Please model this.
Amino acid sequence: MDHRTDRRQFIKAFGGAIVAPCVLPGTHAKALGVGGAFGTPHNTLASGSDPVPNQPVGVARGVIPGRVVWVHDPNAADWAGPGYGHWWESDHTNQLVVDRMMSRAIQRVSDKSSDAKAWEALIKHFNRNHGDGNNGYRRGEKVTIKVNLVGCIIGWGVDPKTYDLVRGVDYMNASPQMILALLRQLVHAVGVRQQDISVGDPLSLFPNQFYGPLHAEFPDVHYLDHDGGNATYPRTLVQRSSVPFHWSCRPTGTTQDYVPVPYVEAKYLINMANLKSHTGAGVTLCAKNHYGSLSRKPPDQGYYDMHTSLPEKVHGSSQYRGLVDLMGHAHVGGKTLLCLIDGLYAGVHPIENAPRRFFTPPFNGQWTSSLFASQDPVAIDSVALDFLRTEWSNYPRMAGVDDYLHEAALAGSPPSGTFYDPDHAAGTARLASLGVHEHWNGEKQYSRNLGRREGIELVRAGSGAA
Model:
């Protein structure tokens, strides 16, 4: 099977009739089609102008407000490329280096000298801000980890009988090494019991190639799976709760969305996204990672089509963006203790089946070999966007690519005028600011790096960070 056929089958896996578009007054949406939702031709891209640097908006979040940690270690990724094994194999991604990257990221997010102290600071900060006092982790509290396994989406990459990854085997999914590093942190540094941890992508199947090394070390963790596996290859079936999810553009005539049970039962959620550009959204990072959180495909028949508010469909700024609802719902973004972006191997979704090397410094023609971490969901996507738009001149620069970040940062009074309230059927309680957004200057510096007491602070760690 050639790559073009593979890509067509991947895009087809997201198919389904496009119904009930949700476009607010003043927007300009193009007619929708399944193919168009995932593949904007280069000649139709509306390239955005270079943004003004160091103009922060919103309220910084986190135990150290607005801090985003970038760990870069070229020793993590040693893969010759397609045809030379697969990037996720232990011969090509170094688990010891990835463990060290995870440790550095956790410690630097909170400025603590050990993993245990760092997690304690992060959890206490989360609890103080959620009305639960100055409490650290308490035995029995559940943790759900949303990883990005979009290359394993139902109907595409994984054989549902054998649970082997059979198509797109080099696709840019969350790496098993990064997932394992996080599980080790939670079990050994935080003290979470394995049976209190759920990890996976509700829209995808959990393939043997990833499940094997994780289950071998942590057999009692719940590995979430859209289908629940089968008798030979058991997984944890993702079921929907009775907690509704509402879109703030208030579409009519659509099937109600509900939050998955593992999200509702969790005290804490960790969002582990990937570093990827996207043909319809410009970028797919922590916010868009939640496209899989409702356990149905974005354009599924009868439901609100999540793609209608992406910049490919609604150009420019000051528009309703459904990503803000996902970032703000009480049981989705609202439970997020920590945001991570697995940047070991970056790429383009969904038109490419293998990652790309980066050529801007400090990558210089090598894999990105990076991990990003923050308690501010807006700040971390802002930083990752700047990396992507610096490397590539197409999708990450389309008009409106950062509009969701402006809307999220100013969610209490957004430029679009939307009443963002994904927890209620009608606008009842506005979301507050979900974090801080700005763009860096030519030296990868944000406002707090320049000595200001607002905006983002980018902290660099690990060999090779420039």
The CA atoms of residues 282 and 296 lie 22 Å apart. Residues 1-5, 15-21, 23-47 have pLDDT under 50 and may be disordered. The longest strand covers residues 336-349. The first helix runs from residue 3 to 12.
